[in-house]
C-alpha cells in the first residue's frame, strides 16, 4: 500500500508552491481581472514556460521532461491554489493529452515539442451552445481537411495558437487540429463570469485542419478518453483552489472578532469549516485514486476520473461559496480575493462537462462494470 | 502510487489468511450471531491469543506479537472477511485493558491482562451517563473514600456488553468542589459484585445491545484505582486514544447494495436516482480511499494525518441517506421490514432504524465537527462556562 505521492513528487510540490507564491501573486491574477484587454498574464506564463512544467508529462523524445502524470497532477494542484491566470490547463491537460492519446507519430513529433517549450499554446474547442455536449449537437463540420462552424465558448481561445476542434465528419465526428492564425479563422473575446481566464468565440470558415489520428468518425469516443484524462488533472487544480479557500476562511475566522471573540469560536462557523474540510478530503482521496488510474492506464480510469471530477467540483464550489460567507461583507468586496475563487470554481466545474454530466458518466461506468 | 503490499506485508497477509481459513468460514453478508455467540467469541479469542494474533501491536512479553500498526490493520482487514465473532472483546482489549496496562500496578497486569487476552474475562467501559453524553466530564456518579475502599453510587448508560462483562473501567467523581475535569478518578470495577445492577436499554431500533448500569453502595478497594485521585480525565483520554483504528467497511448497505436493488427493480432509468448514486459512490470511495492514505502513513511508520477524522461524519449520514432513499424507492411497500416480504432481506429497513444511533454513538456529528474545527483547523474552543468553576457550583 503506497497511496501517496513519492518524496520526489512532494519535493516538486514544495518547490512549485514556493515558486508560484512568489511569481504568481494575487496581484498577477488581478492584473488580468482588471484589464479587459489582457487574455492572460504573460509575465507569469513565460516563467512557467521556463520551468518546463508544460512538458512534465510529455516524453523526452518529444521534448518534454518525461516525468509522468503524477508530476503533472502535483503541478495542477499548485496552479489551482494560486488561480494561475494562464492557459496551462488548455495546453497541457487537454491539447497535449489529446495528441498523446490519439495523434499519429508525425503529429506527436510535430506538436508535442512545441507545447512543451511554449512555442504554441493549445486549447480544446468542443462547445457550441448551452447544454451538455453530444454528437448530435455538433454543427461544426470538417470535410476534406477544411473546417466550418462556430465554437463558443473556447476557454483560452484568444490566447491559444492552436485548437483541437470537435467536428462532424461524414456520419460520425472527428477531432481536428487547427492553427488559429489563418485566414479562415476569426475570433472574438467573450465577457464571462471568470475574466482571469480568457474565453473566445471562434468562427471557422473554410479553415484548413488536420484530423487527429487516422481513424475516422470516432471523435466522440476519443474525446471521452481525452476528457477522462483532463478530468483528473482538472480535479487536482480544483483541489488546490478548494484547499486555499479553506485556509482563507480558517485564517479569517480566527482573526475576525464579533460579539467580543473570534467568529471561528461559533459552532455555525466551525461546523461550516469542518464540512468544507470533509468535502476537501473526500475530493483529495478521489483525486489521488484518479491520479493512480491515470498514471497506470488502469481499466478503472473512467469511474476513477468521474469520481475525482464530481468530488472536486463539489468541494471547490462549496469551499468557494462558504469562504465568501465566512468573510461576511468583506467577502463580497472586489478587493478581497474570495470572489476570484468563486469565479474559478465555476469555470472549472463546467469547463469539461458539468457535474451532472460526470455523475452520469460515473453511473454508466459502474453499470458497464457490473454487467461485465 | 500503488495498492500492493510490500513483500513483508504480503507475507503477513498470507500468513493471517491461512490461519483464518483454517479456523473460520468466509463471511457472507453480516457476521453470524447464531449459536452461543458469546462462547464462540471466547473460543475464537483463545485461539487467536495462542497464536499471537490477538493483539498484534502489544509487546511479546504480555502476549502480543510485537508487530506494527500496519500488521494490525492487515489482520483486521483479513479477519473482517471471515465470520469471526469478535464483538465482545473489541472494547475490552481495544480500550480498557490498554488503560490497565498504562496505569495499573504490576499486580493488576498479572491478574487481568492474560485472562482478557485469552478470552477468559470480558471488559466494558463505563463513562457515559444520562446527564453526561457529549460532555462526559460532567458525569455525576460519585465515589466517597471509606477506609481503604471507595463507595460508589450513581448510574452509567449506553454501556456495551455490561450484561456479559466480568470487569469494567469506571470513571467517577471523587471531588465535586473542583472544576469538573479535575475531580474525576478512574477505577477497575468487578461487574459481578453486589450493588452493580445491569439493565438492558430498549433502543429506538427495537433491539437491546446496550445497558444502563446502576451502582448502589458498591465498594471498590483503593488498590483498584487507575492513576491518582483527580487524574481520571487524563486516564480517560488515554482510553479513548486507544480506540482501535477503524478498518471495517461501511456499517450497513452501501452504494453497491442500493444499485443492486435498483437494477432488480427497474429504477436505474430514474435520472434523479442516478445522480444520487453517483454522490454515494463518491462519498463511499472518499471514505475508503482516505483509509488507504492512513494505512500508507502507517506502512511507512509515520503518524497518520488528521484526514481519518472524517470517517464517521461521512458514514453515518451516508447510511441514513441510502436507507431513506431505498425505502422511498419501494414506495408504500417500503414500510415493510418483515424479511418474508421486504426486498434485500430488509437490510435497508433495519439500517434505517440503526442509522440515527450511529450518528450519535462514539461522538455525535456535532461533536465530531467541533473536533475537526478545533484540533485540525485550530479554531477557538467552544465557550465552556463551567470550565474553571467548581463542579458543585452547577
Structure in words:
The complex is a heterodimer of chains A (372) and B (394). By secondary structure, chain A is of the alpha+beta class. Chain A folds into 3 domains: 7-116, Butyryl-Coa Dehydrogenase, subunit A, domain 1, CATH 1.10.540; 122-217, Butyryl-CoA Dehydrogenase, subunit A, domain 2 (Beta Barrel), CATH 2.40.110.10; 220-371, Up-down Bundle (Butyryl-CoA Dehydrogenase, subunit A, domain 3). Chain A has helices at residues 7-23, 26-33, 42-51, 69-81, 88-102, 105-116, 219-255, 267-295, 301-327, 338-350, 355-371; strands spanning 122-125, 141-143, 146-155, 162-169, 172-179, 185-189, 199-211, 257-258, 261-262. In chain A, strands 1, 2, 3, 4, 5, 6 and 7 form a 7-stranded mixed β-sheet that branches. In chain A, helix 5 (88-102) packs antiparallel against helix 7 (219-255). The longest helix of chain A has 37 residues, at 219-255. Chain A is globular and about 75 Å long. The model of chain A has no long low-confidence stretch (mean pLDDT 97). With 394 residues, chain B is of the alpha+beta class. Chain B has 3 domains: 7-117, Orthogonal Bundle (Butyryl-Coa Dehydrogenase, subunit A, domain 1), CATH 1.10.540.10; 123-241, Beta Barrel (Butyryl-CoA Dehydrogenase, subunit A, domain 2); 255-362, no CATH class. Chain B has helices spanning 7-23, 37-50, 69-79, 87-103, 106-117, 232-241, 255-265, 271-299, 311-329, 347-358, 365-376; strands at 123-126, 142-146, 149-160, 167-173, 184-190, 196-200, 210-221, 225-226. In chain B, helix 8 (271-299) packs antiparallel against helix 9 (311-329). The longest helix of chain B has 29 residues, at 271-299. Chain B is globular, with a radius of gyration of 22 Å. Classes of the chains: A alpha+beta (372), B alpha+beta (394). Chains A and B meet through helix 7, strand 9, helix 8, helix 9 and helix 11 of A and helix 8 and helix 11 of B.
